[in-house]
Amino acid sequence: MRPILLGILAAFFFSITFILNRSMELSGGSWIWSASLRYFFMVPFLLIIVISRRNFYDLLQEMKGKLKSWVIWSTIGFGLFYAPICLAAVYSPGWLIASSWQITILSGSLLAPFFFISIETSSGIRKVRGKIPFKGLGMSLLIIFGILLMQVELATKIAISTVLTGILPVIIASFAYPLGNRKMMELCDGKLDVYQRVLGMTLASLPFWIILSIYGLYTEGLPSQNQVSQSLIVAISSGVIATVLFFQATDLVRGNMQKLGAVEATQSMEVLFTVIGEMIFLSAASPSIISWIGMIIIMIGMILHSYLSQKGKSVQQDKETVNL
């Protein structure tokens, strides 16, 4: 239950991203600076945390031997995740981006066959290719149905071209984030704690953000003071707090694709938090009765997803004991 609670808390802080990214776009800020400034601001905060825990040297040693892999998977997990999310804010409101982002629930589950998991057998530890958790996937579809239902009225008021332009970057991000996160968990193999891994991925993704910011400087000029301030808030809330909470939750269930899918499913709560945040800060319309029904469906889907993932783990262990 603890990983689920950490995931929900992470969703709260992640939702600030969608609200402020849309706010910056509406005030004339460039998506390029919204994306790159967040990761530049994350570095000093994470450095303070890791250095104070006396773990910075161990991180450098771990990165030194596998620098190429760190750069590749960090760029995918952070760069190809957040840059498209910020790009989507140019074309879509925060609630639509947050809703579209929930496809990561499906994306994460569909990535399972690309990873190997360790299982304990009578003859020792054995690595097997992950399988798509179809039971949990069904609950993920229920969650997505609730999200679509919650946004049905607003979605009908937006042009199809705008919807597609806003959704396609989010779909790319939905695969990039769990792929980069899981590959980095495999690469670290439990040798680094959450703070070290987030700092390492942030540092390793800096070449991508530097190149993007140079392009932004050339095409958009310097960011405004307002965008710098809001990017700082996003960096602290989403970049540091939410990312650490989410990675800690995924670390707790590392190696179990069903539980990992359940943790990733908690990110559906971002939609609820984003709706509330936009109502308060961006004067968005109050959700209709249909939207509230959608929220309830999301909650039910999360509970069932968590229950089936726990039950599936027990059945899986029983089968392993008998057959292996």
From TrEMBL:
Tell me the Pfam families matching this sequence. EmrE (PF13536)
Residue spans crossing the bilayer: 31-50, 70-91, 97-120, 132-152, 158-177, 198-218, 230-249, 261-283, 289-308
Entry keyword set = Membrane, Transmembrane, Transmembrane helix
Query: Is Membrane found in the keyword set?
Result: yes
Name assigned to this protein = Multidrug resistance efflux transporter family protein
- Its source organism is Gottfriedia luciferensis
